[in-house]
Amino acid sequence: MVILMTLNIELAGIILKNPLMNASGILGQNKEAIKRLYEYGFGAVVSKTITPMPRIGNKPPIILSLPNGGLINAVGLENPGKGTIKELVEEAKELNIPIIVSVGGTNEDEFSEVAKEAEISGANAIELNLSCPHTKGYGLEIGADPRNVFNVVKNVSSIIKIPVIAKLGLNDKIVEASGKALEAGAKALGLINTVKAIYIDVYTLKPVLSNIHGGLSGPPIHPIAVRVIYDVYREYRAEIIGSGGVKDWKDAAEFISAGAKAIQIGSALISNDDPKHTIKSILGGLENWLRFHNVTSLLELVGSAHRD
């Protein structure tokens, strides 16, 4: 008898053919990028973080590859503004793949403005970027305070019907902030965003990035992300999208064991010459992982590291 394995999941009420999606900021800015993400084999696509008005972003250099396999970036939330959302959503609908619109803002009204546009355009969900560590007035400057997290999520979730996902970044109150996001109406949490970092050239004796600070991503932050996912899942049993340094199926499986229901992949798409092969390899590895544990559904292993 052939036992069928399924990687299908339901996340915040959305059915995904597999648990993988791109991390916001990796492609997702135009319809051509949405099509490319679809061709990679993701279960859902995530747009770049979109603000009410277009943003130019920081001057180069804005991204740096590190010897340890990590990346530091300070793009500065460059994006074409909310007017592009309709085009992105229409392309995803044409391809029959769920799309999550990442939303950025400096205050509750700006988050709500973009979230409304996303819902009107037909997005499946929105992801509130409460965690970008390198853009003044945005992201982590808001999300580091649990009260701000509550207020933004509450304001947005009260005016739209599609699911709200709160993406949070590393800070000493992230477990509390996660609870506040859920209390305010978030249907899922994204954990974690990049980690604030600096890289200094020891020859010029100056920081390399024009913005000085950037967001560290890739393998160096993976154990940190595992810890956060584990702690938040233990506390709230929330639906979690894990992100941070996933390069192969074992990294993805570790997130799932800690409590993640879905996985975002970012740096691996940049550092790998064949992203499609990477996604296929991760999905194949997860199927074999299910067979190893003699289960037929990925959901049976979500949070498995917490079992006695």
UniProtKB/TrEMBL annotation:
NCBIfam families: dihydoor_dh_Arch (NF041011), PRK07259.1 (NF005574), pyrD_sub1_fam (TIGR01037)
Keywords: Cytoplasm, Flavoprotein, FMN, Oxidoreductase, Pyrimidine biosynthesis
Gene Ontology CC entries for this record: cytoplasm
Domain of life of the organism encoding this protein: Archaea
Pathway assigned in UniProt: Pyrimidine metabolism; UMP biosynthesis via de novo pathway
PANTHER family (alphabetical): DIHYDROOROTATE DEHYDROGENASE (FUMARATE), DIHYDROOROTATE DEHYDROGENASE (QUINONE), MITOCHONDRIAL-RELATED
Pfam families per record: DHO_dh
Subcellular location as annotated: Cytoplasm
A Gene Ontology BP annotation from the UniProt entry: 'de novo' pyrimidine nucleobase biosynthetic process
Major place of residence: cytoplasm
Active site as annotated: 132
Function summary: Catalyzes the conversion of dihydroorotate to orotate.
Broad class of enzyme this protein falls into: oxidoreductase
Secretion signal span: none
Domain Dihydroorotate dehydrogenase catalytic, chain residue ranges per copy: 7-286
GO molecular function, one term: dihydroorotate dehydrogenase activity
Stored SUPFAM superfamilies: FMN-linked oxidoreductases (SSF51395)
Cofactor note: Binds 1 FMN per subunit.
Organism listed in the record: Fervidicoccus fontis (strain DSM 19380 / JCM 18336 / VKM B-2539 / Kam940)
HAMAP family (UniProt xref): DHO_dh_type1
UniProt catalytic activity: (S)-dihydroorotate + A = orotate + AH2
EC number: 1.3.-.-
Name listed for the protein in its UniProt record: Dihydroorotate dehydrogenase
Cofactor(s) needed: FMN
Binding of FMN, residues: 24, 48-49, 129, 167, 192, 218, 244-245, 266-267
Taxonomic placement: Archaea, Thermoproteota, Thermoprotei, Fervidicoccales, Fervidicoccaceae
InterPro entries referenced in this protein's UniProt entry, alphabetically: Aldolase_TIM (IPR013785), DHO_dehydrogenase (IPR050074), DHOD_1B (IPR033888), DHODH_Type1 (IPR053488), Dihydroorotate_DH_1 (IPR024920), Dihydroorotate_DH_1_2 (IPR012135), Dihydroorotate_DH_cat (IPR005720), Dihydroorotate_DH_CS (IPR001295)
Family to which the UniProt record says this protein belongs: Belongs to the dihydroorotate dehydrogenase family. Type 1 subfamily.
